[in-house]
Design a protein that fits this description.
Elements: E1 7-8, H1 9-17, H2 19-27, H3 35-47, E2 68-77, E3 82-92, E4 95-102, E5 107-109, E6 112-114, H4 117-133, E7 139-144, E8 149-154, H5 157-175, H6 194-197, H7 199-207, E9 227-231, E10 237-241, E11 244-248, E12 254-259, E13 263-269, E14 273-274, H8 276-284, E15 289-292, E16 298-302, H9 310-319, H10 323-348, H11 354-368, H12 373-389, H13 399-406, H14 416-438, H15 457-463, H16 466-480, E17 489-492, E18 495-498, H17 500-514, E19 517-519, E20 526-528, H18 529-544
Parallel strand pairs: 1-3, 4-7, 9-13, 10-14, 13-15
Antiparallel strand pairs: 2-3, 3-4, 5-6, 7-8, 10-11, 11-12, 15-16, 17-18, 19-20
Helix pairs in contact: 1-2, 1-4, 1-5, 4-5, 10-11, 10-12, 10-16, 11-12, 14-15, 14-16, 14-18, 16-17
Keywords: Antiviral defense, DNA-binding, Endonuclease, Exonuclease, Hydrolase, Iron, Iron-sulfur, Magnesium, Manganese, Metal-binding, Nuclease
GO biological process, one term: defense response to virus
Catalytic activity: exonucleolytic cleavage in the 5'- to 3'-direction to yield nucleoside 3'-phosphates
Length: 557
């Protein structure tokens, strides 16, 4: 049995637009939806309803002699190793005219309108497939929905040769490594895969030492903030109706209805019920569902299959088997982490002894010169010990005295500040797992943290520079503003835990921090902390793929 792959004509045509876009879509299976692709999908939904075959009352096929139009006409050819689902085909006897629907506008040259190269290739491939099926194709048409305009193309040898040439180039491209991004090209601006491709960021890192004329421009990234749904009320039931998520309490009373359009993730804490239909709908939309313990520990993750990229994960496994690569990544992570710890103490601890900042700066210098990962871990441990020795001085609440006495204690937490730190780190771990997933990285294969069963080692690596920036900052803000206090915690023989009311208050603070915009020190644009975490995960992927020479992480002044 042979598993013959047929190339989709729509994806092959993207090669004429951008070889890297073709590779990301076709070879790595990466897809993102933006306003342009959503508009295009809406247009295709109206036309892509398969035509029905007419039958007599006796069930026999009715042979029609008159011209007819067939929607979603599927054609395949093993010799070309090609397939297409054509939006509309007008058939008159043995003659066929493929009609492709587009949302945008044709290419303009003065007063003359013509199809874009991608469109020429796509209808050219459709014509070839129809001819292989036995039809005669003299022309193809492209309908532009925005302008309600139809263009006709003569299907001649030149068009078919152009399409075949692109087909062969695309096949050869798929056999090689990922192409580099376009440099300073307008085509990147509206591309749906820009957040995954990172053309401006990768080119900046690749060409920052090149001559001025090759310097890549800095472009604002698209705003793609999604909704993070967290449900923690025990007994809550989640279902779907159409394209909305319906959240009901234990008594069945509707509490909230959320449109699924912008939902990016769903997290369920403790005994929260979700229907099979809701799981299927969310998975179809590429939305992960995280099952967490009542205290926020990740138990399981329903991860849609389209979130994987074999190419990225092969590179990740190969590169992270190399001790030199592991050391370089570990050093970059810990240098940024210690720098951020130092900044946080200097900003928030007015009584910080002068030598603490100096000692942390020395540890950064030692980490830069480290020759082994164990040395990096040692310097990170020294920095953490020094950092938490003076962390209580950043908090003005009386509870800081108890933390100063206990020090940083993980399990079980002995006081409210320790409990809040642990809960913040748990949630940041879950965010980092999601960021690795969105970057198509395997969360369990890391560098600084040793891989163990059930341990998201790479996610733990990724979060290191962000611990002070996100988790620790949340704790400082929550207690200093009086948003969390003794009443939000319960003390038991097994330790100090947050109450349900405390967790609700925490998630409000957490959401506010994750949505805070911060300027990237290198690229100059502003992103939320959540997007910044995802950006760094994607930069790790680009580095592991060999697309950028160096790796650095976010630090603040």
């Amino acid at each position: 049995m042979t598993d013959e792959y047929l190339w989709p004509a729509r994806n092959v045509a993207e090669y004429a637009y951008c070889p890297r876009l073709f590779y990301l879509m076709e070879v790595e299976g990466l897809h993102l939806v933006n306003v342009h692709t959503e508009e295009g999908m809406n247009i295709h939904r109206k036309v892509d309803k398969p035509s029905r075959v007419k039958r007599s009352k006796e069930g026999d096929l009715i042979q029609e002699e008159q011209p007819k139009s067939v929607r979603s006409f599927t054609v395949r050819n093993s010799e070309l190793k090609l397939m297409a689902i054509i939006d509309l085909v007008d058939i008159d006897g043995n003659q066929a005219t493929p009609i492709e629907y587009r949302k945008g506008r044709p290419r303009r040259k003065g007063n003359f309108a013509e199809p874009w190269p991608t469109e020429r290739v796509q209808v050219g491939l459709q014509a070839l497939l129809l001819e292989q099926t036995g039809y005669e194709v003299k022309e193809a048409q492209i309908y532009y929905a925005r302008e309600k305009m139809k263009l006709s193309l003569i299907v001649d040898t030149a068009l078919k040769d152009e399409a075949l040439e692109i087909l062969e180039e695309a096949k050869n491209c798929a056999k090689g490594s990922r192409p580099l991004p376009l440099v300073n090209d307008e085509r990147c601006s509206g591309c749906s895969l820009q957040p995954l491709c990172l053309p401006n960021e990768i080119n900046y890192e690749r060409l920052k030492n090149a001559d001025e004329e090759f310097q890549p421009r800095k472009v604002w990234p698209p705003c793609d903030e999604g909704i993070q749904v967290v449900v923690q009320q025990q007994g809550t039931k989640i279902g779907v109706s159409g394209m909305s998520m319906r959240i009901k309490d234990a008594q069945g009373t509707l509490q909230k209805e959320i449109p699924l359009t912008n939902v990016e993730s769903v997290s369920l804490l403790g005994s929260v019920q979700i229907s099979t239909q809701a799981v299927q709908t969310l998975s179809d939309l590429g939305i992960p569902i995280a099952y967490l313990s009542p205290v926020g520990r990740l138990i399981a993750l329903i991860d849609p299959l389209d979130s994987t990229s074999a190419e990225i994960r092969r590179s990740q496994v190969r590169k992270l088997d190399d001790p030199t690569v592991v050391l370089e990544l570990s050093k970059a992570l810990i240098i940024a982490k210690i720098a951020n710890q130092r900044t946080l103490l200097m900003r928030n601890n007015a009584a910080l002894p002068e030598n603490v900042a100096k000692d942390l700066k020395k540890l950064i210098a030692l980490t830069e010169k480290a020759k082994s990962v164990d040395s990096v871990r040692g310097y990170e441990g020294q920095a953490a010990s020094l950092y938490f020795r003076h962390f209580a001085g950043t908090i003005k609440d009386i509870l800081s005295e108890e933390f100063q006495k206990n020090g940083r204690v993980r399990r079980p937490a002995l006081d409210p500040i320790n409990a809040c730190l642990s809960f913040a780190y748990t949630n940041l771990t879950n965010e980092s797992v999601a960021a690795c997933r969105l970057a198509r990285l395997e969360p369990s294969i890391g560098a600084l943290h040793v891989s163990r069963p059930g341990r998201p080692a790479l996610a733990l690596d990724l979060m290191e520079p962000f611990r002070p920036l996100i988790a620790d900052s949340i704790v400082i803000s929550a207690f200093n503003r009086g948003e969390l206090g003794e009443g939000h915690f319960i003390r038991t023989a097994s330790g100090c835990l947050m109450t349900d009311f405390g967790r609700r208050a925490f998630y409000n603070i957490y959401a506010r921090r994750m949505d805070t915009l911060i300027t990237h020190p290198t690229y100059g644009y502003r992103l939320s902390y959540r997007r910044m975490l995802i950006l760094h995960a994607r930069m790790i992927a680009a580095w592991l793929m060999g697309e950028i020479p160096d790796l650095s992480f976010l630090t603040t002044r």
